[in-house]
Structures are given as C-alpha cells and as structure tokens.
Specification:
By secondary structure, this protein is α+β, with helices and mostly antiparallel strands. The protein has helices spanning about 40-50, 60-65, 130-140, 150-165, 170-190; strands spanning about 5-15, 20-30, 30-35, 50-55, 75-80, 85, 90-100, 110-120. It binds flavin mononucleotide. Flavin mononucleotide binds near residues 24, 25, 67, 134 and 137.
Length: about 190
C-alpha cells in the first residue's frame, strides 16, 4: 500500500538567513512530519544546518507552479517560535524541528516534530483547477524525463479543469506551466535540428 502524501510548501532558511521556498510531498507519520527531499537540495541542506523548517498549507497554487518555473521568491513572514519564515499566503503553518535524520545518497528522510502552529485563513473547499495546477507542476518538474506526447496529453486533460473552474491565480499559474512546456519543447527541437 502507498503512503498517503500531501502536497505542501516547505520554507527554510540558510545559515546566512536567506529564505528558501520549495513545494514538497509530505507524510504525516510517526507522530510528526516526514520530509523526503532529493539530494542535492537546498531544503535538505538548510534543515540539516539549522535543524528547522516550516510547513505551509497553501491553496494559492502559484507558489507550486512558480517554484518549478523559476519564480522562487514569495512573500514571507517571520516564524513565531523558531528562527525561520512562513509563507504570507499560508492558510496554516507548522513550525518544525528536526528530530531524526535517516540519511541516504539519493532520498534521505527527515523526521520533523511540530513545535508551534497557527491558522491564518479558512480552507475554502476543493478547487479542481488548483489540483490541475499541482499535477501540471509535477509534470513540468519532470519534463527532462517524460515523453513529450505524454506531457501534451496530460496537460490537455488538465486544461479541462482549468477552463471550467479556475480563478485568476490558477489561470496565472497555468500560464507559467504552459509557457515552460513550450520553452522546453522549443529547446528540444533546437537541439535536434
Ligand atoms: C507538487 C510537488 C511536490 C514535490 N515534492 C518533492 C519532494 O517530496 N521532494 C523533493 O525533493 N522535491 C519535491 N518537489 C520538487 C521540489 O520542489 C524542487 O525540486 C525544489 O527545487 C527542491 O529542491 P531545492 O530545495 O533545492 O529547491 C516537488 C515539486 C512539486 C511541484
């Protein structure tokens, strides 16, 4: 059986104080939160260096689409109990400390325990376009290993939810993803010609 995975945004800070934002699949297990950042990753290095991270629950999917299309700077606020930042757009954030590190050459597991959390805005309900943007962001983050036909077919299917249910944030996010796919395709054609 698979682990249940939730897509969230992890904010960390480097030892020099520079904030870092990354979408990440998280597992609520073992009484805390398990993060599995691929190596190499700034998120991994920051958590190992500082011992802390912030889990952000967001429905503004521009953060997901933005981070995989080169838009990595998002408004943040200071965390309350740890040296760190949360996303300004977080509906809820959880401040985490590193309690166990299961190292691995490729995919280490970082077990994090909550030390503080706060709610900032209510959850409005499921929006299919938000789900489509998340799926599209996963596709875009894997463009280098997916067949172009698969990307095209899946993006066209996801487009239905965008056309029927998107608001302005999802439309903007979707535009970034479509542009990234087009850029990748153009780059590939350039290389083969
Ligand atoms: C929905 C979604 C889920 C992701 N989940 C993970 C994850 O669990 N682990 C990971 O290493 N990267 C994940 N990524 C990719 C990272 O966000 C991205 O590669 C990021 O840049 C991590 O590396 P960094 O910390 O160096 O920025 C995910 C991306 C998306 C769009």
């Amino acid at each position: 059986m698979n682990d249940q995975i939730f897509e969230a945004v992890v904010t960390t800070v480097a030892p020099d104080g520079k904030p870092h934002v990354a979408p990440m699949g998280i597992r609520y297990q073992e009484g805390g939160v398990l993060l599995m950042p691929f190596k190499p990753s700034t998120t991994h290095d920051n958590i190992v260096a500082t011992g802390h991270a912030v889990l952000n629950i967001v429905t503004d999917t521009r953060v997901f689409a933005g981070c995989v299309t080169g838009r990595k700077t998002w408004p943040t606020r200071a965390a309350e109990r740890i040296d760190g930042v949360r996303l300004a757009s977080a509906l809820r954030h959880v401040e985490l400390e590193l309690v166990e590190r299961r190292d691995d050459v490729q995919r280490p597991v970082l077990r994090m325990a909550p030390v503080h959390e706060a709610m900032h805005a209510p959850f409005a309900g499921f929006n299919r376009a938000q789900a489509a943007v998340i799926e599209g962001a996963v596709l875009v983050s894997r463009l280098h290993m997916l067949a172009p036909e698969k990307v095209e077919t899946e993006m066209n299917y996801l487009q239905i939810a965008i056309d029927k249910t998107a608001g302005p944030e999802e439309r903007e996010a979707w535009g970034w993803l479509r542009a990234a796919v087009a850029r990748h395709r153009a780059g590939g054609e350039e290389r083969t010609s």
